[in-house]
Amino acid sequence: MVNTTQERIDRTLTALSKAVASQAAALMALENAPERALLVPDRLTGGTRQRATTALSALTDAWHWYSVLTDLAGRARALRGDRARLDARAIDELDLLLHGPVPQLGVRPAKLASRTDAALRTVRTCIDEITAAWNTHLAIVHTAEQRIATAAATAARLRLDDDAGLAIARRLLAEFAERAATDPLSLPESLSAQLAAAVAAAGSGLDELARRHDALPQALREAHELLTGIIALIEQAAADAERARGRVLRSRASLTRLPDNVLDDERHGLRTWLDRLTATAAAGRWKEASRGLDRWRELADATAISARRVAEANAAMLRTRDDLRGLLAGWQAKAVGRGVAAEPELAGLYRQARSVLYTAPTDLDRAAALVHAFGAAVDRRTSSNPGPNPEPKPGPEPRAGPGSGADSGSGSRLGADGPARSRPDGGRGPASAHNGSSARPAGKAPGRGVAATPRLILPTCRPGSDSLAPVCRQGGGRPRPPVDAGPTR
């Protein structure tokens, strides 16, 4: 019967032999792995170098301990041999060799095998951490390189090889790539964020420049179309002013115009400025032309608003006169239909109003007062005396003056189909732009057969001045002054 001491020796020797074989495989795998090159301290810096130095020290210890264990296992196998039974002397020697302390190390073989395994795990963990960090940073570098290459292609197309944003992105990429290669474990996240932001800024900036470059020809065409429209408005305003001059008068309004140099001022005249921008673009300085066109468009849009208001204000003068004529004709038709037109009071008021309205220049304020008085008188007279024809034929519609239309923004609206008034037949006319109702005689409520007194709401354009400021304040405020590097008008 084999004693327990021999069985214990055989178990220990078998376990030690297996441990040595496993360690040999692990050591060879580490030495032959491509990532083993990441542990060369001379290629590393910072925290990564410290970790690599520690791992290399552990690897050196593992090789040494492995050699000690290999020698010890070899000696034990030689002493054990293949004998079925060991004598007492062999058992004592093997027990001391396998279970006693290893000379110069002071630990038992089993403990030394555990230390060797731990050292190998340390080396493997360090290599894995460095590899993972390096792969992560390599992906960032690869993505940044691709995006920078795309931005560089855009810059080359635009002939902007000296683009500042692209230069910053390239510098940060070089710095990031160098630190990722030498110290991947200590690379700060802030540097990665800076690189991503710089690459994104360079790409978006060049994309915007490309958009400006490609859109500049169309933007110049649209600018010339806008200028043509402004010139047409200025000419229309001048034509309306010429037609109104000598034909109408009004105490609270005057004919207006834009400054004479709004088109041809040397610095900021819309026509001369646009000509310079067109020439700049043709010379290849498209960035300068595009940015200048933005400032030109701001001034042009403001000028277009002012020109439109000037044109509407000038057209409103004759349009108001024509509306008063139509309103007077409507009240007269009602008076005739009710058989009261020949009464002295009504006939006198009608003659006065018609005389003022058909005499040049027409005093609009006086004409409005007379038409209002005549309408009120007709309303009072017909409400007490319906007459033979309570439903007279409506009066003629007022003529549309120059520049009139549903979208006119000059002054108060007189209604889409004529002046805001009560209809001469006693019904309600289009609502006033100011109060939405017509006046009626004091003390009388509107009712069946009682016509409301008409109330004419005239435009409220106020006198302007020779400036870019709008002359009619309804519908908007002052336009912004031009944004430009030079002085403004």
Automatic annotation (TrEMBL):
Residues 379-489 are annotated as: Disordered. Residues 387-399, 479-489 have a biased composition (Pro residues). Residues 409-418 have a biased composition (Low complexity). It comes from the Bacteria. This is Uncharacterized protein. It comes from Candidatus Protofrankia datiscae.
